[in-house]
Write a structure and sequence with these properties.
Length: 826
């Protein structure tokens, strides 16, 4: 036998002139494993890889190479081809006899080779067809196991027994689609060879879009070269479409087209959209071929196509089989209904043309869709035919109005609260219940506004109510619609603390007399108007706030709007009531929380109100307990800051207030509260410049918003000291909450700030957390002796002898935030 390596060529070489093969693939081939398998779908460069390997010298010893065709589906034909290839390299004599057993000849010859021999079989997926493939695999594996001079290299599109069983008995070098894929730098190199101008970003996009599919990428580059030499991604579909059309089996073609509809799928979903006895087998083969990306998501195995591949499959399905596309969406819609995934139901219903289902989803889940998924809702509505949109008010709002609220950017989903089922809240506003009627479009906008308020999205709420009001006025809509929208604007501004603007909307002529029970729209609009009036009066500390709060009727339905009424009454009791009234309302708020769904904004606001009421009643420990598991968010941050302030934890108060002010969705009321906490904490620490700066910001915010109630966070003495001689600022403090003149004079001259130095104040604050000089010294980075010296001075100035006495005396002298004004008013 001649040991020189012969020149090997394939009978139907498809190897392009310009190719890029990863060096690691050639290294795997060079290892000369007993069995080497190159597996990948059509166009993954299997033949190119083999030709490149041979061009670089190949295995370096005698090689038998053949490429199979569909004729090799017949096992006898396969053995005949292998027999002929062995004859070509003089391993077998020419066969001229009739009835020769080609399998026996080939098996005997290969089993008896005594010098290294590599057998390369390209397009091995044709070998044996459905009936004879396993037998051929077993025969070749047996040869490799028995003869250590025989090396077998096969390239195939599918997973076969030779791969699964072979790895159990012989060493296998596996070149899978993962190794054959092209990455960004390889795409750049290939583009340079072909003559297409490509930057790194475009190369990476092309590699990712096709999942590294070599032939598909090369096809786009070659076509782009003929299209002017610049990358044309519009050509990406053509290769995939040709591949699908060339598939022999309709079941495989249908599987690819149908499973491309969902963005990702699992085995169960594949059975749903492409039902059939062989679906799971096809899934396994397509995955093994490298056409699918596989991920483990929460213990579930899911699959997806590369972006360009999925895009091409969807376009082909849409253009060539529109009825099948609608049928797939119909099946997916049914599954989404079972899973209560309302957004997916809507999307699939639109693509399936199931307009009645789409309309029902819009009717039932409008509050969720418009607050949680506004951009997706708008995109879905754009896919609805114009003639269908014209018949449905919510379709029109989703298509024409939602984008207006998104001009400032889509709300951060992490800051949007769940709305739940608010149909009960808006049922009283429905066209059927209002006396003069509300047109469906205005009603949809008003529902959107109510949902946005409950979701914590102030800007969308204002946009929705504003558009509802404008639309009703422009189209000569009902006066009720105008009043509802106006009341919605007033309530939104009031709830989010912009009480000056809320008051101006309440003065709008469209709401004249609406708060009176005799008014036609009292049942529908009156409560909203009275709620806004009560919030405005309370936040401005108006002289008539007692009457406004008392005039707010209690709703029979225990929902978020009812919860707002409880909140208003409790806050009123916190600043005007005595100890018994405060205790009663703290209990009322605690009970009210249990009527509302957990984890929504209304429930969170009630929890902060409970803490506020307890603090107003001097029940610091109970307030701490109520706030123990209160998560930090836009609703609670100012409460956490106030709690730290009243506990004498001034540095913590400063930190929490600053964190609150960095929160984008903080209400105007909470902004002022955080600014005043900063002012009070810095003042208590003797940091006068920082205190005045924070106080000035709070005053500017108070003027802008009309807020006055947050000023009571400060003791009047601290307020007066920070206001100085500015009469305009001093007048902001409500007359009813000013202490008597003689008490005010006493306050101006007293306080810890006047008794202790800034360093002593800092050590006194640390004394709340630490019982001795050593930990205080470690926290403040001072020597122990220095801390002891300051502690002796503090005890002497406070006329006490120990830590407990110092903390008690400090609390008596200068407790910031105590509602002394309320006590004086009593």
């Amino acid at each position: 036998m001649d040991g020189a390596a012969p020149t090997v060529t394939f009978t139907r070489s498809r190897t392009p002139h310009d190719v890029v093969v990863d060096g690691t693939v050639l290294e795997l081939l060079a290892k000369r494993a007993p069995l080497t398998i190159i597996r990948g779908p059509r166009g993954y460069g299997k033949t190119t890889t083999l030709s490149t390997w041979f061009g670089a010298g190949g295995p370096g010893h005698l090689t038998v190479a053949l490429r199979l065709t569909r004729a090799s589906n017949d096992a006898a034909h396969f053995w005949s081809e292998l027999d002929s290839a062995l004859v070509d390299v003089d391993l077998l004599p020419a066969n001229g006899a009739q009835g020769t057993d080609h399998r026996e000849r080939a098996m005997t010859s290969l089993g008896e080779v005594t010098e290294p021999l590599t057998v390369v079989i390209d397009d091995y997926h044709h070998a044996g067809g459905p009936d004879g493939a396993a037998d051929i695999d077993d025969d070749l594996l047996e040869l490799v196991r028995q003869n250590d001079q025989l090396f077998l290299v096969v390239s195939t599109r599918t997973t076969r027994v030779i791969e699964t069983t072979g790895s159990l008995s012989v060493d296998v070098a596996m070149i899978s689609p993962k190794e054959l894929r092209l990455d960004g730098p390889q795409v750049s190199a290939l583009a340079a060879r072909i003559g297409v101008a490509l930057n790194d970003r475009e190369a990476g996009r092309l590699a990712t879009g096709f999942g590294g599919w070599p032939a598909a990428i090369r096809d786009v580059l070659v076509r782009s070269r003929g299209d002017g030499g610049r990358l044309n991604l519009a050509l990406a579909d053509e290769y995939i479409a040709a591949m699908v059309r060339d598939l022999r089996h309709e079941q495989v073609r249908r599987f690819l087209l149908h499973t491309a509809v969902p963005e990702r799928f699992d085995a169960e979903l594949a059975q749903l959209v492409a039902p059939g006895d062989s679906t799971l087998t096809i899934l396994r083969n397509v995955r093994s071929a490298g056409l699918l990306r596989e991920e483990i998501d929460e213990g579930q195995r899911t699959y997806s196509y590369a972006p360009f591949v999925r895009q091409a499959l969807l376009r082909l399905l849409s253009e060539s089989r529109p009825d099948e596309l609608r049928a797939v969406h119909q099946r997916l819609m049914g599954r989404s209904l079972q899973e209560r995934n309302h957004l997916e139901v809507l999307v699939h219903a639109i693509h399936a043309g199931a307009w009645s289902t789409a309309e029902q989803v819009m009717e039932d889940e409008w509050h969720f869709l418009v607050t949680q998924e506004p951009a997706m809702l708008m995109a879905a509505a754009q896919a609805i035919p114009s003639e269908v949109v014209a018949q449905h008010a919510r379709f029109r709002v989703a298509r024409d109005e939602v984008d207006g609220a998104l001009l400032g950017g889509e709300p951060d989903p992490q800051h949007i609260w769940p709305t739940g089922d608010i149909r009960g809240i808006t049922a009283e506003l429905s066209p059927r219940r209002t006396r003069s009627g509300v047109d469906p479009t205005s009603f949809a906008l008003i529902q959107w506004g109510v949902a946005a308020v409950i979701a914590g999205d102030e800007s969308s709420a204002l946009y929705a109510f504003g558009r509802a009001r404008t639309l009703a006025q422009e189209t000569d809509g009902s006066a009720t619609a105008v009043r509802l929208a106006t009341a919605g604007l007033a309530c939104t501004h009031a709830i989010y603390g912009d009480v000056g603007i809320a008051a101006s909307w309440l003065d709008d002529e469209t709401l004249d007399g609406v708060g009176d029970e005799s008014h036609d729209d009292y049942a529908q609009v009156g409560y909203w108007v009275r709620l806004a009036q009560a919030i405005v009066a309370l936040d401005r500390l108006d002289p008539d706030m007692d009457d406004r709060v008392a005039a707010l009727p209690e709703r029979t339905r225990r929902d978020e709007v009812w919860g707002m009424g409880v909140l208003v009454a409790a806050r009123h009791a916190a600043i005007t009531g005595g100890p018994r009234e405060v205790a009663r309302w703290a209990a009322n708020v605690r009970a009210a929380r249990h009527y509302l769904p957990h984890g929504r904004m209304a429930e969170m606001a009630l929890r902060t109100t409970e803490v506020e009421v307890l603090l107003a009643g001097g029940r610091l420990e109970e307030a701490r307990h109520a706030a123990k598991d209160l998560p930090p968010n836009a609703v609670t941050m100012s409460t956490h800051a106030q709690l730290a302030l009243l506990a004498g934890e001034y540095r913590h108060a400063v930190s929490r207030a600053r964190n609150g002010l960095s929160e984008q969705y903080l209400s105007h009321r909470s902004v002022i509260e955080c600014q005043l906490v900063l002012a009070a904490a810095h003042f208590a620490l003797g940091e006068r410049a920082a205190a005045r700066a924070a106080f000035a910001e709070a005053i500017r915010s108070a003027y802008a918003s009309g807020q006055r109630r947050p000023l009571l966070i400060l003791r009047h003495r601290v307020f007066a000291a920070l206001a100085g001689e500015d009469l305009r600022v001093l007048e902001l403090w409500p007359e009813a909450f000013r202490p008597p003149a003689e008490e005010s004079q006493e306050e101006v001259g007293g306080g810890l700030v006047e008794l202790l130095t800034p360093r002593e104040l800092e050590i006194l604050q640390a004394l709340h957390q630490h019982a001795g000089a050593v930990p205080i010294a470690q926290e403040l980075r001072l020597s122990v002796n220095t801390v002891k010296s300051h502690l002796r001075s503090i005890y002497q100035k406070l006329n006490v002898t120990n830590r407990a006495g110092a903390l008690q005396r400090a609390d008596e002298i200068d407790r910031p935030g105590a509602r002394s004004g309320a006590a004086a008013a009593d």
